[in-house]
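Hello,

Our lab assistant flagged a job as stuck in the queue for most of the afternoon. It eventually completed. Since we weren't sure the result was trustworthy after the delay, we are filing this so someone can double-check. Below is the sequence as submitted and the structure that was eventually returned. Let us know if re-running is recommended.
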Amino acid sequence: MDKTDKKQSFLSHLEELRWVFIRCFTGIVICSILAFIFSDFIFDQIIFAPKNTDFPTYTIYRNLAETLSMDTTLFATEFNFELQNRKMEGQLSVLIWTCFSFGVMAAFPLIMLEFWKYINPAVYKNEKKYGLLFLSSASLLFFVNRQQKVDSLNRIK
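-- returned structure --
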């Protein structure tokens, strides 16, 4: 929204909203392409990481059982299973939807920022501080959560 104009027509609001959607979609596409490039890492280290016996949660439960002098024979030494697709396009569909999902997750801070910039001119001053608090805390929590996942993945290696 142009700061010099106080009022906009309905069509100019729709045009501005269209550009918000285009920027969000572009961010999702770029992040999805990056997820496709790193799809081996995403599948091996994030999605299928719990199949490893040295997965952090599995290790914690095993150590807790040993500490409490419980029977640890229930814990597997390895997991033998095969994943099967029941449809011809199953493998490709899983890859595409996984990359798209990771693209949306990675672009989420951008999406929030774009929508905040769109609604910001219509929000009262006392509401802006709550909106900025929400935007900053949501982004902070998003990046802290991502950093914790990266740290746990580095410990696995």
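-- support follow-up --
The delay was a queue issue, not a problem with the job. The result is valid. Residues 10-81+100-156 form one domain. The chain has one domain: 10-81+100-156.
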